[in-house]
Amino acid sequence: MAELGKGVTAGKLALNVQKRLSRAQEKVLQKLGKADETRDTAFEELVASFNKQMTEGTKLQRDLKAYLAAVKAMHDASRRLQDCLADMYEPDWFGKEEMDALVEEMIEKEMDNNLEDTDTLWLDYHQTLTDKALLCMDTYLAQFPEIKSRIAKRERKLVDFDSARHHFSSLQKGKKKDEAKIAKAEEDLGRAQKIFEELNVELQDELPTLWDSRVGVYVGTFQSLAGHQEKFHKEMSKLSQNLNDIMTKLEEQRQLKKDATAATKKVDDAKSEEANHSESTSPAPKSSVTNGSDADLPPGFLYKVKAVHEYTATDNDELELKVGDAVLVLAFDNPDEQDDGWLLGVKESHWSQKKDISAKGVFPENFTQKV
After folding, report:
1. The whole model's pTM is what?
2. Hey, is 302 helix, strand or coil?
């Protein structure tokens, strides 16, 4: 007998062709209603559940891969964003050194407090999800092709069983009975029935178990996903909070400069208007009385001013001001200690109650105006 290929002979090939023809004929007869078909409704429900389970699992696997691709893209975008921040942050902005250090930590280095840098966080997040979620789904879905193949085989063997059953029945009902053919048909029927029932029993045991396993797989996958998401975002939030603090202080610095500039302009405008209406061409010295109302001031005070902007003290020797506070201005004990644009004084309300200057402090002149 001539060989056609490894493990395949002309006889086997002919047998396979004959089986296909026999199955095709049987399916045609069943569709035409000329041969009854063995149906198992319970098994068909198992197969429907299997197909649904495989479809859902495949979709979850596909969406997990898309999610991991998005994590990688977000990692790359985050790195570019941090690089952009480092490039555009100007030297005179608040916390330039802190910002440079933070960006380095967020891009390259590990922090001293054992908080991982973002590169490590992103990579670990991606790898962990790959190991704990995607590979789990890959393993879960790997069993479906083999079971699907056995379901298809069971369907073919069921057709073979029905065909053998119909052939045996037709021989028995024939007018001229050939006992040898009947015996052979009965033997073929028994063999076909045995093969089918073995496959049928195995699948009826395995399919319900596989169907139940989906719950554990989904729980494990999404628990892993949620847990690692929580850890990743918790660590990322620590770095993000540091960045937010620097940005907040930068905005405070910008607003303070803006307010100071506006106050200076307002005071300068007032001084310019006062100079235009003054008969004297030379400014009065710091220690001299500059308007008539100062004659009623207590001894030792030069003149009185009123706060037109709020000022928050940043040192122990500074005077904190609120809009509307009246301040009695004092001369510095040592004129060399007086910085340009700064005055020394005590709040009028404190002087009225305590009659002492222990609460005196310095404050920016351009935050006030004379009264």
Report:
1. 0.54
2. strand
